[in-house]
Structure formats: C-alpha cells, structure tokens
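Morning run. Coffee first, then this:
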Amino acid sequence: MLYLNRKMKKYSLIVLWILFAGSVFAQSDNLKLWYNKPAEKWTDALPIGNGRLGAMIYGGVNSDHIQFNEETLWSGGPRIYQRAGAASYLPQIRKLLFEGKQAEAEKLAEKHFMGMKDHEATYPAAFTAWLDKVMADKSLALEDDSRWETMKIPTVNGWEVAGLTGVDGAVWFRNSFELPAAWKGKNLVINLGKIRDKDITYINGVKVGSMDSMNLGRKYTIAASILKEGKNEVAVQVINPYDKGGLVGPKADQKPYVVYPEGEDPKNAIVLNSEWKYKIEDASPPAAPVYEADYQPFGDLYLNFKEQGAATAYRRELDIKNAISTTSYTANGVHFTREYFASAPDKAIVIHIKADKPGQINLDALLQTFQKENHITKIDDHTLGMTLKVNNGVLHAAAYLYAKTVKGIVSISGKGIHIAAADEVTLYLTAGTSFRNYKNASGNISQSLIKPTLSLKSKTYAQVKAAHIADYQRYFNKFSVDFGAGSSLPTDERIKQYSAATDPGLLALYMQYARYLMISCSRPDSPLPANLQGIWNDQLTPPWGSKFTTNINLQMNYWPVDELNLADCGQPLYKMIGELSVAGKATAKIHYNAPGWVLHHNTDIWLGTAPINASNHGIWQSGGAWLCHNLYEHYLFTRDIAFLKNAYPEMKGAAEFFVSTLVKDPKTGYLISTPSNSPEHGGLVAGPAMDRQIIRDLFKNCIAASKTLRIDAEFRKILEEKYKQIAPNMIGKYGQLQEWMEDKDDTADTHRHVSHLWGVYPGTDITWDDSPAMMHAAEQSFKFRGDDATGWSLAWKINLMARFKHADHAMALVNKLLSVAENSNPNGKERSGVYHNLFDAHPPFQIDGNFGGAAGIAEMLVQSQQGYIELFPALPSALPNGEIKGTCARSGFVLNMKWQNGKLQRLEVISKAGSDCELKYAGQAVKFKTVKGKTYKFNGELKAIGT
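And here it is:
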C-alpha cells in the first residue's frame, strides 16, 4: 500500500508538472500564418526546414511548387584565399593613412592587400576570347524576333528574379517605336536607365552607344539619319559575365524606357512597350573571378494535379507550433488536404496528400534543378533520383523522391513519379552533397540518402509526423509570449493593417516566427550556421552570395538564441568559429605577419577569411573578435564552464592577433587598429570607434575568462596593460559619439550602419551605469543618423533604443520593421519591412532582420548586460498588458512574468546555474542567492512570495 501511495504520488506530480508546463508554455491560437490564396512569388511562399534541408511551399491548386535547398550546396571549393606578400605592404598602407592620404592607401591596398579571387589568373584571356565571340555577331539586332520569348522590363532586381535563372552571359533584348511625323529629321535621345553590366545598343541595326557599368544610366543620341518612317527597331545586347544582370531601369521619378527629340522636354517622350522580346545568345561565359562562394538553390519539386477542377474554401497556412504547413481546398465536391514539414529525426522533407473520398488523388511529381550538370533517373519503382554538380564549383549532390501511397497506381518515367487513383500519398524528399568540411568535398552522397530513405519505407506517415512534432516542440515549447488578441485576417492583410494597438498578436507571432525560423535553419547538428537567408534561397546568384557577412549580419542572426531560450541552436555558429580560428591563422600571418587569427567582413562555406570586395570596406579586422563576443555571451547566459573552456582558445587567438597588430596613433599615442574601416562607411581609415569597442570587449572577456578558468595569468597581464592603452570613446563637436579618431561626423549622414554604437548594443563598452555621458553622446549620434533604414538596420536600431530605454521610440521602429515591403507599383522598388510571409526585407530578403527584430523586442522587456536583471527597461505604452514565459537572462536564469496596465503583476525566476541574482524594477532592487534548479516567485513589488 505504501508502494502504491508513492507510485500514485509520483504519478500525480507528473500530471501536475504536465499541467503546469502546459499553462506556462501554452500558446494562443495566434501561432499561424495563413492566406486565402496560393503564393504568387517566392516571398509569398512558406518556409519549412530541419536545420539542413529547407523548402518554400507555394500551395498552388492544380500545380504546386516546392522549391528546396540543402545547407551545404555552395559554389567554389577548398582553396587558398590569402594574397602572398600582402603583409609587406602593410607599413606603407598605414603610413599613407596616418598622412591623411586615404585615396592612395585604398589604391595600394586594392592592388596588393585584398584576398585572392578564384580563377583570377586564367580569367582575363578566357573572358576576352568569349567577349570577342559574342560581340562579333550583330545579326540579332535585326533578326526576326517573332519566335523570341517576352519579358516585362525593367528587371529592377536582376533578370534572374524576372525569369532568366541560370543566365550569366549575353542576352539580346528587342523593342520598337513608331516615329512621329513631327520628329522627322530630328536627332532623338533614348533613355534606358541602368543596365547590368555592359550594353551595346542599336537602332535599326546601327550602334548608338555602349557602356560597361552597372551604376551609370544609359542615355544615347540617335542620329536623324539612322531613323526611318514608321517602325524603328531597338536592340540591346546585354553582356553580364557574372552576378545578376538585366535592364534595371531609370530612376523611380522618371518614365521608363523613353525616346524623345534631343533638346526637348522628356515629358513628351514615347514610352516603349514594357513587354520586351529577348533571346539568349550565350549563357556560358567563363567562370568569373570571385572572392568567395555563393549559396546555391538545389532544386524544385512540382506537383501537377489532374482532374480537380476549380477550387473553393482555399486556405494555406504555416502552423509554427507544430512546424507544419497545410494547403486545403475543395474541388468537384472533394476536400483535399496537403501537409508539408521538414523532419529532423527522419532527415527528409515530407508531403502528405489526402482526399475525403477514395481514389481522388492523381498527380505527376516532377524534379528539376537550375544546376546545369544534372541527371534525373529511376531508382526503383517508387523512387526518383536526381544527381547534379554545382555550377562553378566542385560539389556533387543528389536527391531522392520516394512515393508511398494508400491504394492507387505508382509509375516512374522521364523526370517524374506518376500517381493515379490514390486515397493518400506521402512523398519523402531527401538530399545531400559531397561536402565534408571546409577542406574536403569528397563526402559519400549516396549513403546520406539511402539510409534515411530505407528507414522511411518502414514507417507510417503518422509515426513520421509524431516524431517530427515531438522533436520540434522540445525546442519551441520552452518559450511563450502573449501581448493580447490578434487579428483574424489573413497574414498578408494583417501586415497591411498592422498597429500594435489593434493587433498586438502580430507582434507576438513575429517573435515566435523568428524562433521557428531559427529552429528550422540552425539545429545542433546543422553542418553550418544560418547564412544571410537562413537556409532558403531560390537564386543562382543570390543577394550578396547569401554568404556569412561578419560585420554584423551573421552575429545578428544569433542575437536571440540565448535570450529566447534556443541556446542549442547556436551550436553551428560556435562550431564555425572554432574552424575560423584555424582558417584565419593563415590570413593573420600572410596579411599582417601576426600570430593568432583574423576574419574580415565575410566568409563562406570554405571559410575564406581574407579581405574581399573592395579596399574601402573589405579591409576590416574585427569580424573574428565580434564572433568571440557571441561566444562569451553564450557563457554569460548559461554559465557553462565546459563551453567556456572550449571557447577560450578561440578568444585568446583573436586577442593575440590584436596584441601584435595594434599600433600607436602618432597624434594621440593611443593604440588603434589600422588599416580598417567603420563598416561599410567612410572608406579605409585608422582606428574606427567600432574596432576599438570590439577589441576592448574582446580583451575584457578574455581577462574575465582566464580568471574564471584560472589559467593564463601572464597573458592576462598583457591584455590588462594593452586594454588601458586603447583609444577611448570620444565626444565630438556636435555632442555626438565620434565614429572615427577625427571629429568629422556629418550631422546629415543617414548611413544604414551605426557601427560606432556597437558599444551600446550588442556590446557593453558604453552603459548608463558606467558611462552616462557617452550614452547621451551615442543618443545624439543616433538622432543624427535617423530612424529610416534597411530591414536589418532597423532591427539593430530597435535594440539600441531599448538600451537607451526609449520605449515608445523603440516601438516606433518595431512598427517600421513590420511595415509592408512590397511596392504597389510592380516596377517600383521594395522598401524595408516584411514580405507577405513575414520574411524581413533589407530589401531584398535577409533573415537577420527577423532575428535581430525579435531580439530587440525581448530587449525591451528584459535586460541583464550590467550584472543584474532589469525588468521592463523599455516597455512601450502600446503593450500595456502581456505575459512572457521562458525568456532567459545572463547568469543562468529563466524568467516567467506577467504585467497589466504597464505594471508587473508577478514574476518567477528559475535558476539554472545557482548564481547570485539581483533584480531591478521601477526603482526597486532585490538581491538573493539561488540554488540550481529552484524557482523563486515575486509579486509586482518584487516581494518574495515563495519558491
């Protein structure tokens, strides 16, 4: 009986714990994105991911599109990124900068200090030969274009976005206009706006102009002698050897593509037809020299349904509580439902299709890819295979599509799986590449596909789905947030009508969506951290290569992981930092003749660490040091000594580099970094404020870590001495925080980067407790720089405003971040904000804004960077009521708290590490010791009410 009572007591405790957990982490119904129509474009589609495989779901009725990626499919390959002999030019570059000769320093650095490009040596001769070939044939200027394809012009974001995916090369565009009788005998002007990259423009087969620049608008004079009565042919040969090409168009306030008499008012111009004919002349130019590799789209799965008819009751949604996307509709009296998810346990993208009447599912499932070298073949009676070699790279890859049905007939032919008269269909898509690590691209692809596919054959869909939900929710269910009821409108309409007052639920959804994206693209076993677009990309030449930009964007991706209770999701980043600390040693030695390691403003899958792009912004030394800040922040949140022990050598290596390379500023005698820049602003300089703040942060954290670990006393002394000699933050003539050593800030400058405010956030170089005068100076700099910004910059500014404790200003920036990105004018440029699927718009899409924005909202509610936990440091008036559970604070604490009418109602503090705790709220403070694993409860006045 005693045993029974104990057993019942244990069971009761379990039930109570489950009920409590359910109440703590119960999510409102406001955890869905939903729409009443299929996606029209990629940024309408809904993302799914398992940390390695990602897909975008369009949800079409008669034809569905699933665009998919695999995290390790990149161009390029292992190679040397450093430029031999670069260090020998370092003294001269520094001397020129100290003499104020910035242009000369940039020119010398551009020639001798930048990293090596791939194909750099062989490209000039190969490109010249190719260019001569494609420019030799001018017949396309007058060829019969009746069979040519058409494209709507301008292609503001490049022709890949407009439909010419896979084309780097030579493309001809054709149009025409009727010559008015009144213009006869007059010279005309044709305005084509900007073109990427080189154009040769013809009128009636006669060349009228040519430029080779993506930044210059094309205005060419057409001699009257060229023109003829009636129809006149316009032909533009566009040479685009790499990156996104196309006819970008004129400025937004100008008419697109016009012809008018020379010297007369352009307002009276003829506007050319927006539908241009085009023909691809040659889509295979030699591989262009590039500093780093690009993340690549893997392929596309199309589901073409037969005999369905018109659809009613259509709904497309993404349930972020269960990480499942659903498309449902009724056609011909049959209700169809499709569920899509990316399973981490089963390493596959899963699509389940069912109908409420038997034998109604008839479809063709087709695989495609933009990678030119590919082969699609039958693997077995239920499995289709696709192999490919990445364009301009060494990686090989393969995908399997396996079909499992309830009744029905399955057959395979050509590039597809054909299914007829099935009750239910489950498709399992697996994919893998030959990537093993940044030095090795010879992995066994087939093994990574065969094993998951064989495993799936023995499982039911219900088993796979249940395992997926359980695995996902062990991350997602650690946190909940409620700001109030949400709108019942479709998500795209909610975005258009959003305000925090009328739809606070959208704000909570936005935070949770960021957590969903993080879990979906950065799992503990993910081979790589989240790149500029997470793991989602549909372009062969994605924006900025969809790389890892390390002058803020990669670091920003991981701002919310510790604060929003997703600590495990940071592991791919920490793994990469460890590898970068090895790869960066060669750059430190070859470019600076220094020990330790260094990383500049970008890296890729092959871990290039040398400076790239251009000397005026690519030579920036602090990428690795900033990543070390992410390492130490993770330790501060978790108090994980084992993690700190593993991270310390990486932090020490970054510090060793600066111990060796800091030099005395000849004017002030302070230690500074040089050459460098204030990203991506102001050109090549010596000693920008951001560098100094980051280096101080690195030294401070290394000193603290060495004390905690009780090691490296001698090195600690060196850091302590150097720390005191680093140039301090300075206040300029306008009361601003100086961005550079010189007091040269421009009060009219609205640049998107606010790099000199790094010490406010994410750093702690400038705080209200220790340096209030500098905080005020930073506020003044922020005021000059202004609120308008790109998506990720808005996210950074939200965090800064939270640190400044300007609650309603921070909220105004949140509202900007949640504004509509799409322009109602189809030819107009997008704005910063969010797309229909809540992806952040730089524009174009960058995922860092999603992650940084969520971190900023959390920062408004809780801050712990100054050694204590401050509750509601920047609670805006627009969020008077709410509840948040599972948010984390430094020193190993998890908080659950509720507020009403702008005031704290109750608080729970869960101690994960047994650290001492100090709470501050509304002028009150309380300190107490904690025991690991215990919960401490407080009322709205911070009075303890139990444990």
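The chain is about 30% helix and 30% strand. Good start to the day.
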